[in-house]
Amino acid sequence: MNIQGSTRQQTSAAVWNWRDGASGWYRDEVVVEEPLEIRVNDRALSVTMRTPGRDEELAAGFLLAERVVSGERDIVSMARGCSGRAGSNVINVALAPGVHLDLEHLTRHVVANSSCGLCGSATIDAAARHFPSVRSNARFAASWIASLPDRMADAQVTFQRTGGLHAAALFDERGDMLVLREDIGRHNAVDKVIGHALVKRWLPLSRHVLVVSGRTSFEIMQKALAANIPVVAAVSAPSSLAIAFAQRSGQTLVGFVRGDRVNVYTHRRRINCGEGGR
After folding, report:
1. How many CB atoms lie within 10 A of CB 18?
2. pTM (2 decimals)?
3. Residue where a domain terminates, one of 109, 128, 147
4. One domain for residues 100 and 179
5. Of 66, 141, 155, 268, which has the fewest beta carbons less than 10 angstroms from its beta carbon?
């Protein structure tokens, strides 16, 4: 998949769909996810994952929230790229004279480096170097995968009372739910699940399935790869970068897991049409 920087907000992906016992391939529309590097006076400040479009507004809002600027007069210009080089995934903000950039008081960590011209492929390559690809011969039935979100929802005690939390749950190949965690943030819920597995000395999780509420992003796939989880299933859609990362990392990515259907976007070999957990 070509996911170079652009202003496209959607793309298409090949999907294997199982629904009520019938299966087949088709093309599905998926939302684009790419990194945006925000630079101030040609200095790297932050990288955030986003859907392309309105990037200048995103950068301005970020700088306001970080108290780098207090109003539109503090910004002289915004341009794509840096140091005279083009880059659709880089916004370089020029501050007005007298506006001081205090990096020590930023609330977010600076994760960008001195390079520019970021693209999805570069982000995947950088992340993939930290962990090897998943190696697992575990296989799971599509009908069993389809049942997992309901099982997770039944165990979401705080969500049932508040309706305001995301969840992540880890299932083993026998079908047992080993741990469920809730949090206002999807990524936090995943971190809690993987952290629990780490403390319990369960890693690597090469024969397990991670189930998440909401959509699947690049960062969730990256976290799952760190724990060597072969299958990630979500009740909603994956992003384009999540699909590309999963393909590169040997992970099976499943989306729209709802009752009688599943969409498999990568490494379909781990999902079969049989009954039971395997």
Report:
1. 23
2. 0.77
3. 128
4. no
5. 155
Beta-sheet strand order (sheet of 166-172): 22-31, 10-19, 261-264, 252-258, 231-234, 208-212, 166-172, 177-183
Torsion of CA 144, 270, 178, 154, to 10 degrees: -30
Distance in angstroms (rounded) separating the CA atoms of residues 141 and 28: 22
Within this chain, do residues 86 and 18 fall inside the same structural domain, yes or no? no
CATH code of 97's domain: 3.10.20.10
Name the DSSP class of 134: P
How does 163-202 read in b/e, with b if 16+ C-beta sit within 10 Å? eebbbbbbbebebebbbbbbbeebbebbbbbbeebeeeeb
Q: What does the pLDDT look like over 100-112, one tens digit per residue?
A: 887 776 655 554 4
Whether 273 has a pLDDT exceeding 60, the answer reads yes
What domain range includes position 116? Answer: 34-128
The per-residue pLDDT for 237 is: 94
**Catalytically annotated residues:** 116
Q: How far apart are CA 255 and CA 236, in angstroms?
A: 6
pLDDT of amino acid 5: 40
Distance set, CA 35 to CA 85, 121, 134, 188, 210 (Å): 17, 10, 24, 20, 24
Q: Quote the CA–CA distance of 145 and 140 in Å, as a whole number.
A: 7
Domain check: are 86 and 45 in the same one? yes
- The single-letter code of the amino acid at 111 is V
Spatial distance between the Cα atoms of 62 and 252, rounded to a whole number of angstroms: 34
Of 70, 105, 128, the residue that ends a domain is 128
Closest to 35 measured CA to CA, from 24, 51, 23: 51
